[in-house]
Specification:
Layout (H helix, E strand, L loop, with lengths): L9 E4 L6 H15 L3 E6 L9 H16 L4 E5 L6 H11 L4 E5 L5 H7 L2 H8 L4 E5 L3 H6 L7 E8 L2 E5 L6 E9 L8 E7 L2 E7 L3 E2 L8
Parallel strand pairs: 1-2, 1-4, 2-3, 4-5
Antiparallel strand pairs: 6-7, 6-8, 7-11, 8-9, 9-10
């Protein structure tokens, strides 16, 4: 718990995707600089029992990272029928937030013109709050659409590295999410898992991971 500067309070807004961890860590650095409280918020229109494994994995990973960085609370708004902007505004006022960290929206320029930018709405609604907009890296943008939907998988330690499997046994070394490359008959892709409160991504080539220390940059 950070209470050094009660004049400042950080709210990190995250949505499902590879940019979430980056946003939380950015918020953590700002909170550490001001020695002030930080909250993490995610909003979802679906009930929790309708979440798929990929979404649940992101939430679990983000909670661990938020705890590691000393967040006051990880707030999940399930089954939310209000707009995302409305929820962000309400939480901002409830927690006396002074700075918001959020990712660059995925909307096209045309959608922003016709439907309005979330950032612009927040600026109008929360004139007393500073906004930090974190852009998605080119590497992460390039991955969109290149992999199939993530599924739960495990790494079993074998001679020469690790083998990908989809049935849980007591011999499994790591549990995570496997993203298979589009257009391949083999299990080639990316395996993402938590290790020591850090999200790690490793390449899978024909069901095998050579070394979990050889991470994707």
């Amino acid at each position: 718990m950070k209470t050094g500067s009660m004049d400042e309070c950080i709210l990190v807004c995250v949505y499902y995707g590879p940019n979430g961890e980056r946003l939380i860590r950015r918020g953590g650095r700002i909170a550490n600089m001001f020695n002030c409280p930080m909250y993490v918020l995610t909003v979802d229109p679906q009930p929790k029992d309708e979440w798929d494994i990929e979404k649940s994995h992101y939430i679990s990973a983000w909670k661990k990272i938020a705890e590691e960085l000393g967040a006051e609370e990880f707030i999940v708004k399930y089954n939310e029928k209000r707009s995302v902007v409305k929820v962000i505004c309400d939480v901002t006022k409830q927690k006396n937030v002074t700075q918001i960290v959020l990712g660059q929206t995925a909307r096209s320029r045309w959608e922003e013109i016709t439907k309005g930018s979330i950032v612009n709405v927040l600026l109008n609604e929360l004139s007393f709050v500073d906004l930090h907009i974190v852009s998605v890296s080119r590497e992460l943008e390039g991955q969109e659409g290149f992999y199939e939907k993530g599924i739960r998988a495990y790494l079993l330690e074998v001679s020469g590295g690790y083998r990908l499997c989809f049935n849980h046994t007591h011999l499994d070394k790591y549990q995570g999410i496997f993203y298979k490359e589009v257009g391949t008959d083999f299990n080639n892709g990316v395996f993402k898992f938590m290790k020591d409160n850090e999200m790690i991504e490793v390449l899978v080539i024909e069901d095998h991971v050579k070394d979990i220390n050889e991470r994707i940059n």
